[in-house]
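Many introductory courses stop at the sequence. We go one step further.
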Amino acid sequence: MRILTTCIYCGCGCGLYLESESGKIVGSYPSRNHPVSKGALCVKGWNAYEFINSPDRLTVPLVKSSDNFKESGWNEALNLVSEKLLQIKEEYGPDSLAFLSSAKTTNEENFLMMKLARAVFKTNNIDHCARLCHASTVVGLAATFGSGAMTNSINEFEKADLFLVTGSDTTEQHPLIGSRIINAVVDRGAELIVVDPRRIELTKYANIFMQQDNGTDVAWINGMMNVIIKERLYDQKYVEERTENFAELKEMVKDYPPEKVEKITKIPKNLLIQAARLYAQTKKAMILYSMGITQHTTGTDNVKSLANLAMLTGHVGLPSTGVNPLRGQNNVQGACDLGALPNVFSGYQKVGDKAVRDKFERAWKVESLPADPGLTVTEIFKKAKEGKIKGLYIMGENPALSDPDLTQVRKALEKLEFLVIQDIFMSETAEYADVVLPAASFAEKDGTFTNTERRVQRIRKAIEPKGKSKPDWQILSEIGKRCGYSGIEYQDPSQIMDEIASLTPIYGGISYERLEPFGLQWPCPAKEHPGTPYLHKDKFAKGKGSFIPCPYVAPDELPDEEYNFALSTGRVYWHWHTGTMSRRTSLLDREVPGAYVEMHPADAEQLKIKEGEKVEVSSRRGEIELAVKLTKKVKEGSLFIPFHVREAAANVLTNPAIDPIAKIPEYKICAAKVEKI
């Protein structure tokens, strides 16, 4: 039997069929008619089923006793979780608790996690991994445009005349989108500008490749705007009618002539001028970016600067243009949309707005929802280490491998009085837990994901949950009931979506019936609304778009005499994040079975290091051992490490310094050194 569903890996949201035999998933196959994937899948999509059958799936609740886990019944485990969380709330106050939701779980489950945190435990201490990847997108685009999401649709790539890709190794991170770009360039002659510190695959197809020094993005964007304004290439009518604060932007970018930008970024001034002219003079130009832009202490400024560039040239609010952040995980957009954030309810409705709180209090039949924004992921672990967060509930996240400066994260986990992990595998984080709750995989439940282009689409149950595991929404509901709250009981996830629609204007017209077969793009405010392929058509979500000038600020930590390399981290095509799923898939693990560090051959020659040799890479926070891969993809003086491999976890090294606005860590650059072993 084949069941149509949505891929569990990246934010593309490809449609695939899961094939089952005798209650077991035996294959995954592309949907020919799906609007995103159109009959294609990447290697992860073709193998999106093997991990479901892994023999080390969690199948029964586990409770820690004397540093060892013992199997438990559901009643015992759920009673323990609810009793301990309520006890901590009563003894230390609601804000001694924190909740981490998940970009891997459904919209319905993220909504319930934030409902549990707010309605039952009365805390806004809820966040998820978007804080670590696209928090600066949400903040930056909301400030400039009024909406922190991808402005256009993937299908619009087919009519775009130019792509400006920066901070996104698109063919590795979002393969089906990467192939759209390549096809547009090769088949239609579309132009391509790539700006990246590494020579990624897309540079082979680029008309212009600008290899900037890592962390200098605001400077080159300001430099392009300097050229565009100086040569009067900007869209004067658009700027006058649809934007505000242009005079301040114009004054600020005067300080970034191409000659100065070249000194900061190492981008040749003539190349910058050429790129600025090409982008400004092309009618349908799309900006695409990902975590190479966002994961900086200046991530919000990077995003605002790209928004400035797009507005300056009139490239927002039209088909095949816009500013298009490529969301990382399958449901990171949805987890944000559904309020798994410390400062907003679903639909980005602010917790500080009394009218919003009143609405949710009436709907949820509760009183005194908390009004002050809660803690972010990074702040939660800091407060846990200080002993101020006592209890932590984590659903589908693995911060002991994914968060920066892992040594400190693990110390924080050890300090907790009570830790609950809800997951499909025994992760590195689960080893610290007091209770581990076995969750159903995406193939074993119903629900929805929202992809990078705001497309809300179904996942459909193909087989029964493995062992005694349960869907996350059922577990959350059971805990809420055991805590004495009856407003969290549901028979089916479709009922949760109906509640979401009633409280969330951008999802107001969405129901399971309307999502057949391939979903709808929000905003979809009413039952008769067809969904929205692109945003800001006649005016911005906030009225007029706001230019927000951003001066260049250097990264928090740059190479010096002792730590003389600039280290960055990222993904590879064959794996996904902490490897929980992809490293349990034989084909994927065979292709990239271990950790490595990319190094320029000239640097290796100076250090007398050969291809494949083991080295120690260290930063001010720790050290790891791994093999060397010599490549000219990286600049001299730079290193790149994929962050998927627990045996040599790159995040032991990364810098926990955060963007002061979005609170996102600076994963993309820190100072490191390399020594032969």
